[in-house]
Amino acid sequence: MTISQEELDAQSLATLRQYFGYEDFRPGQGALIRAILGGRDVLGVMPTGSGKSLCYQIPSLLLHGLTIVISPLISLMKDQVDGANEIGIPAAFINGSQSIDEQEDVFAAANAGRVRLLYVAPERLETQRFVNFATHADIALVAVDEAHCVSQWGQDFRSSYLGIGDFIDALPDRPTLAAFTATATERVRRDIIQMLGLRDPQVVVTGFDRTNLYFDILKLGTRDKANWIARYVAEHADESGIIYCATRKQTEELADTINALVPQLRAVSGAASPSSSPIAVAYHAGLPPAQRERAQRDFVTDAVPLVVATNAFGMGIDKSNVRYVIHHNMPESIEAYYQEAGRAGRDGEPSRCTLLWNESDIVTRRRLLDNGGANERLTEDEQEQVRRWKRHLLDAMVGYCRTTECLHRYMTRYFGEDGEMPAGAHCVGGCVNCDSTFSTTDVSRIARTISMCVHDLGQSYGSGKIVAVLRGSQAKDVLDRGLDHVPTFGRLADVSQSTVRDVLNQMVSDGFLTITEGRLPIVMFGARAAETIDPAFHYEMKSITRPKPVRPARQSNPALE
Ligand code: ADP
């Protein structure tokens, strides 16, 4: 007897309501479950916390055979099994901590249909005992959690995931395969499909647009960043926030600056200081464990409103009322940014994510990447491939900083989620690009002249001198060195110092120039330098007219007032 599509849909909805107590599926869940129940392989790409587990748990109750879940973290497995049993899904796990008798008991329960959902780590698939069991068991579905671990392109590559494809192939009856991940770049997705051997899978990408988040990007000089942040914090002193910094030292310095400046700023604006206790705590992996735990506890319990942290902060921290996340530096990838910024507004209330960046962030990131620590497990060739891949991730991040497109759209498109936005439309969650107007300025002459000046100075001076020479500075240092005699001296006297500097920095991050490392960084020609002498050379700089500052998200959460 075959069951119609409508009946299957009705059954899965009834199961959702009966076991989980939820009224409706979230986007993507229904389509994935329908495909699985129809025997089609799937790849579900959904962010963490969006409800992937339910997509194999519901089929485990409705399919006739056993569902095996391959999950990389043994430490989480027990929680997952307990959680499933609690709502009435008969679940168990097999891992190395169990005795052989205990394992045999689980196998027997699975064969008797008393276990519907069996969790295993990928390493288990290589053991003879498990293979014997699986060969004789009636397996309807194999769900692979964190499927991106199969891809060498991901950060979390696990070699044991490479055995999953062979394990499936060796089974006498091929079960349906369902792969799930929150990491979704095109390359990783292709790898998952190929390495796991998914057959014509239904690919569902959804849930990446966090419509309660306002995305802001702001280009600021390094020195201006701390002041901007202190002002923002002072204006939002009763809200909870996270500030991400690139280095441990920065977290401590910035926390100190905030704790010193914010009470002053609040006093000037006439606001009462909430209390004399610190507003910000620093958090990074170099702090003693007790201090880290305290910082985390104080933040989660609202004893301090603000944590200034490296990317070590956040994993496993459950705080739903974070109203803003500010990045003091540009992260290395959109994935990293999405994950960190996404810690704002978990309660669904309007919240704000601000990324502060400048051209030298880009230069630093590129440099770190090119000189990145060698991984001994990889050959020279593989290391170069990884570097190239990371450059590609970084380029997408730089693209986010520079784009004039809707930031929600940029992000969801990056994660492979469809959804056209009509021209001129405003995004749902709001973003600075939808609220701003843009203009581009032709800076070809400025760029060409900078390039000539680098040549005039024999590629042996830093950016400060180059800007001074171009603007015709009469500083003693310039005159003493006779730099007022080079042909480009004073050629950009009509252009503001900050514009010359901005164009120079943009040329560095675009590869026309490079800056050497060391105590006295020197500006030299980059790989694309020759393009600047081409008569057809055209170079533009984007400028933005930002909206008036909005006071985000306050009145909507009276509990925080
Ligand atoms: P993921 O595996 O994608 O990280 P989980 O499966 O752990 O996410 O789900 C995250 C949370 O969302 C869980 O508390 C889960 O019960 C809840 N959830 C999942 N699906 C729904 C739904 N359709 N309606 C409401 N809550 C849901």
TrEMBL record:
Gene Ontology molecular functions: 3'-5' DNA helicase activity; ATP binding; DNA binding; four-way junction helicase activity; hydrolase activity; metal ion binding
EC numbers for this chain: 5.6.2.4
Keyword Acetylation recorded: no
Keyword field: ATP-binding, DNA damage, DNA recombination, DNA repair, DNA-binding, Helicase, Hydrolase, Isomerase, Metal-binding, Nucleotide-binding, Zinc
One GO CC term on file: cytoplasm
Annotated region (Disordered), positions in chain: 548-561
Domain Helicase ATP-binding: 33-202
Recorded family membership: Belongs to the helicase family. RecQ subfamily.
Protein name in the entry: DNA helicase RecQ
Cofactor section: Zn(2+); Mg(2+)
NCBIfam families: recQ, recQ_fam
Pfam families assigned to the protein according to its UniProt record, in alphabetical order: DEAD, Helicase_C, HRDC, RecQ_Zn_bind, RQC
A single GO BP: SOS response
Catalytic activity: Couples ATP hydrolysis with the unwinding of duplex DNA by translocating in the 3'-5' direction
